[in-house]
Amino acid sequence: MQENGTIEQAKTVLKHYFGYAQFRPLQEEIIEKLLQQQDVLVLMPTGGGKSICYQVPALVFPGLTIVISPLIALMKDQVTALQANGIGAAYLNSTIGMDEEQWIKHECVQGRIKLLYVSPERLQTELRSFLPTLPVSLIAIDEAHCISQWGHDFRPEYTQLASLKTHFPKTPIVALTATADKTTRKDILAQLALPQANVFVASFDRPNLSLQVRSNVQKKDKMEEIRAFILARPKDSGIIYCMSRKTCEEVAADLNQTLGRQGISVGYYHAGMAPDARDTAQQDFINDRLQVMCATIAFGMGIDKSNVRWVIHYNLPRNMEGYYQEIGRAGRDGVSSDTILYFNMGDLNMLTRFAQESGQQEMNMEKLNRMRQYAEANTCRRKVLLSYFGETLEQQCNNCDVCANPRSFFDGTVLTQKALSALLRLNERVGSQMLIDVLRGSHRADILQAGYDKIKTYGAGADISNRDWQQYILQLLDQGIIEIAYDENFTLKVTDFGKTILAEKRPVQLTRPVDFTPSAKPAAKE
Ligand code: ADP
Ligand code: ZN
């Protein structure tokens, strides 16, 4: 084997160019494999230190390192940072002019550029003639999950990267990502044709993030809670993720109106805004001119703001990858930070519709179900979250709402019977809210008109609050006793299992809805 450099050299580079005394966990092992010319897949959470894994070997290797990255803004930041450290680096993407491109290529040929960042679109052209003429020592593929349809951020341009191994059969490839469940992981290796790759998985645990879920809070109360939450930490900056652009703007307007006088400034960010309005909003947030950002998932890719103290999900996210990444924008400096996820039936229905209408129905439904299971979990949320990423947490985390309020089970048999029998008497033609209203004996005009007040179980659940009923309906869904028909009205159906339970009067265990006060004082800082 050709000797390409030693780990000692790598340590020298780390200290000399980056000023760090030692490698973080896994960085050294990863670099060692790369120096031995082996392929590597790196799974490391955002902020874990992925860049060092290829930037250090790039400086140890004699030739050029190509870095594929999908985000133009990120590319620019990285190259600027490298240049500031005295490292020859450049990028080729759609923002580069002809002259500049000629100069960069010339510098590459002269060996003065060690790291060349290339967008995946651009790579195809450059693979035809320019890149094969260079001594390429290493290829790094950032955001590698973009190659997988199973990932949450599939980019068609990424599928072309499969040909890299053919073009450079001897060059080690390192693929890096912050989000990949087990299935995506396998898919990345298959797509990139790297069956022999060494896989390194860093812990995804972020113990400094508290995890809380609030289900079925009515809109009015939700806003009230969020205001109290922000006022309890008036100096902290945070992000509120909303499902739609409209909601972002509405929530921002509400908060500005109600909290503006207390000196709290709130902005919004979504993909429907003009590019410079978006840039301004983002810069204002990063530089603490805006304290709270109401945003869609478009916000946050590559934002390196270390002192975000909290993240609220105003709606249920589509999948666990997105959720993990979004809460991960809080507490990047390691200081205790809070996350709250709000979710209700309406979110679930809306996301179900998106999933049903998407090209990849089955997969998106599966991902949504996993998300719902997390939100409905009765065990330590961190365990559920980490198990999604293939990690096992041995102990309770003591930093989530379930650990703080262990669930208590009760005999929900009668309650379930009432709900199922009402649903059957309504010919399984109603959605959850109508079912609850009938059970609670509402005098809504449409109920009286339809004659639903005549059924036997009308008002049989009047002693249970609307919100508690919503929680129970979700639990019945989770237990497979009822299911949602994905029709226009999201009507509920009793499953065969539910029918058996009813017919055989089988016992059903439910958990009591619990409450916590999100406006409570922020946790003591570490
Ligand atoms: P990722 O790409 O995984 O999100 P980065 O590569 O941006 O993470 O690294 C996150 C932060 O950690 C950066 O500020 C980086 O300089 C720092 N970092 C990485 N490796 C080390 C190390 N060995 N020692 C100290 N700091 C490090
Ligand atoms: Zn926990």
Automatic annotation (TrEMBL):
Q: What is its EC number?
A: 5.6.2.4
* UniProt GO MF annotations: 3'-5' DNA helicase activity; ATP binding; DNA binding; four-way junction helicase activity; hydrolase activity; metal ion binding
Q: Return the broad EC class.
A: isomerase
Biological process according to GO? DNA recombination; DNA repair; DNA replication; SOS response
**Helicase C-terminal domain location:** 225-371
Output the Gene Ontology cellular-component terms.
bacterial nucleoid; cytoplasm; replisome
Keywords noted in UniProt? ATP-binding, DNA damage, DNA recombination, DNA repair, DNA-binding, Helicase, Hydrolase, Isomerase, Metal-binding, Nucleotide-binding, Zinc
Q: Does the keyword ATP-binding apply?
A: yes
List the catalysed reactions: Couples ATP hydrolysis with the unwinding of duplex DNA by translocating in the 3'-5' direction
Q: Please state every residue range assigned to the domain named Helicase ATP-binding.
A: 31-198
Which metal ions or organic cofactors does this protein require, according to UniProt? Zn(2+); Mg(2+)
Family that this chain belongs to? Belongs to the helicase family. RecQ subfamily.
- According to UniProt, the name of this protein is DNA helicase RecQ
Protein species of origin: Chitinophaga parva
**Designated gene of the protein:** recQ
Q: Give from-to of the shown chain within the full protein.
A: 1 to 526 of 715
